[in-house]
Fold this protein.
Amino acid sequence: MTRYFLRTLWSIVGRFPRSHRMHKAWLALLGIGAAIVGSCVTIALAQAEDFGHKVRIVEKDGAKRLTIDGKTVVEDTYVSIDEERTIAGVGVLIGSSSGGGTICPEPAIFVVSFPKGRPFRLHGPKGDCGEITYEVGKDAIRFLRSKAYKPKTWTWTPGKGMSAEADANLPNPFQDSDLWQDISAGRVDHPLLLFSHPQMKEAIKAWMGKDEDRIAHAAFGAGNVEHKGDLFVARGCPRPNAFCDDEQIIFVFDTKTRERFVAWRLFEKPPVIKPAPEQWSPLARVELNAWVKEWEDHEAFRKRPREPEPPARAPADAVTDDLLNDLRGRHLSKPEEIFKHPDMVIPMETLLVGYRETAMSMVRGGQGTVEDKGNVIVGTSCLPNECDDKSLMFAFDPTSKKVFFAWKTPGNPIVVKPPVKEWPQPAKAELTAWSKRWTAASQNGGKKPQ
């Protein structure tokens, strides 16, 4: 019965057109399937007979795997099958995979084909964290990456697989319009659009020359525009949150004087300011100075001097600036104290993007433990009376001084950051034990095993 229920879910979702919203809806339905067929650590989320092959999506240690005939084909935090089609007489599954979070907001896409009398073939996953749309035709699948500096298109066919990317040659919405009118009317709502505006072509070339493509990447992801009096300020970075301190671009235009200014900073390179700062207008320079100060503050924090480890342990109530020292010295005994430590700032900013408040809700006022096991320091936390539905664990590797997180919330699969394959073996063993304990508790009517 379970098998037919999940098969029905698969077929229903497969009829929807693919989008990021439907990607999330599919994941929610998979969660329902997981609740029905869950078992210990490995959970069968969906299973079916497709084109004569056994196709399954299973969850293990917080990661999902697409398996075909028992072989793992795709593995990531999220894996889904979006459509099942027959193209030119060949059975095809179209799916997507994602690491989750907002650093890479859009999933990669893959195609699995089942030619008759031959082994199945995987094409992909393919993606660059930008949105990919597709249309299924009689003989091919046509893909489009439209929200990019240079939109690209490519095709998949049963005989040749994925073709090389080609320019999509989409119509330019600014082809016959005026830059300043477009800015005033709010039609330029992302810094990347300035790279495609015809009236910016000469300025972009003069500022950036042959490096235009590389610099445009700094405006590819997160971006925003502001109108501050006569100033138009557009800022962008490659990805939301985590990478905005490494690569950025800012455009400052004076709509009254028609002056245009730009500055950018690429990874591990000094900033470039065009024209020279002294040539910026006073109001524009205020924006430039604020932009510079943001990444200077980040650099100063990241490169702050660290105190050498003291020869003897500090008093029990003295917290230092070294997380390993404080954990080994038992200056920190509760997860809530550990999460407030200075060394936890960057791991939380990069690994808990989009989940920070969820994680902190299980730490603030929660009950938890911290245990030093030599080759790994592991902690768990949960709120009273909620430990069987909502729980968090973290592992600290003394060798690399890296932190690893995993948590479970009601109705959702286990989330693991970074992916399980990046966890060192001692930490991975603790993750497996924690997963088993939680899963066993959920299957035992809420009674935690002893």
The chain has a mean pLDDT of 77. Residues 282-302 form the longest helix (21 residues). The radius of gyration is 26 Å. The CA atoms of residues 110 and 125 lie 4 Å apart.
